[in-house]
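Hello again, I could really use a second opinion on something today. I've been staring at a protein lately and its backbone has me curious. You're getting the sequence in one-letter code plus the fold written as tokens. I'd be grateful if you could look everything over and explain what you see. No rush at all, and the record is pasted right below:
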Amino acid sequence: MTDALHRLTGDDDPLDAVWRKEPHVFRPVDPPTGLLTLTDLDAVLDSRLLRLPYLELVTTEGTVDPSRFCPPRTVQGRPVHGYPDAAAVRSLVADRHTLLLRNVDHWHAPVTAFCADLATALRRKVEAFFFVTPPGTQGRPVHRDDADVFAVQITGAKDWYIHDGPPADGHWTPDRTDSPGPLRLSTRLEPGQVLYVPRGFAHRAVAVEGTVSTHLSLTVREASTAHLRTLLSTLLTQGPALPPRPGTDADLTDAAGQLLDHARKTLAELDGTALLDVVRTSMPAAHAQAATVPTFRELETPRGPDL
């Protein structure tokens, strides 16, 4: 078990009983509540460098028009759009709008590293989203996610309502649902606790009155049939280097035979488990910084002569 998974669950092998089966609340000893704090968030907003689509303001009715919090800037005499104004964002949150930060793993180094570690443990793509929800409000309607979710409560508290999972036949789409099914779990998530919501289980969450709620959602992406079809098509179409326009019927027949031989050989070496494994490992991973690339601060340090 990697450190990231242990910090989410606190157990040696906690997921066997609940993975893709039941929602569950974990109470780890060392939860990752310090990966992104409100102090960090203030610094990010005040830096004025974060831009759309990494930031949204939402309610159960939908997404707030960015023009309400992204006034245009002028750079080299040209208008530039998509940069949030920190004061406008805070004002909308105070007016009962939820702040949603998307793909924190792209731009916040501690979250990037944590997601990379978790992705190694689960052998799947991991992304991170951060929610700031005003007291007594619900940021999103009842919905299903196309991912398994670990929700880490950081400040405040949230009442979560998790309903049934998706149809067993696999014919469902993520996002809002008007038919969530029976309630499976109702729980209040306190700071330091981690809620696991299996992929496709309908859910909603309401911030408890009295204080703002912040939580980090770590989403574990799974392969879909579209991923399987795309990769299989790629594997089958890759093959021997052939001339684009064989000159004779015999040449064309030979090229067709080579392509068929490649396809047969590829299929003979694949089964469902192998194809799924290749799909999972080929899905984009967290945007981890290459360890071999020096930082600018390191470049500032004079180097001694090479001996």
User: Anything to note?
Assistant: The longest strand covers residues 125-133. Confidence is low (pLDDT under 50) at residues 286-290. The CA atoms of residues 196 and 223 lie 19 Å apart. Helices lie at 3-9, 38-47, 86-94, 109-122, 225-237, 249-268, 272-282, 296-300.
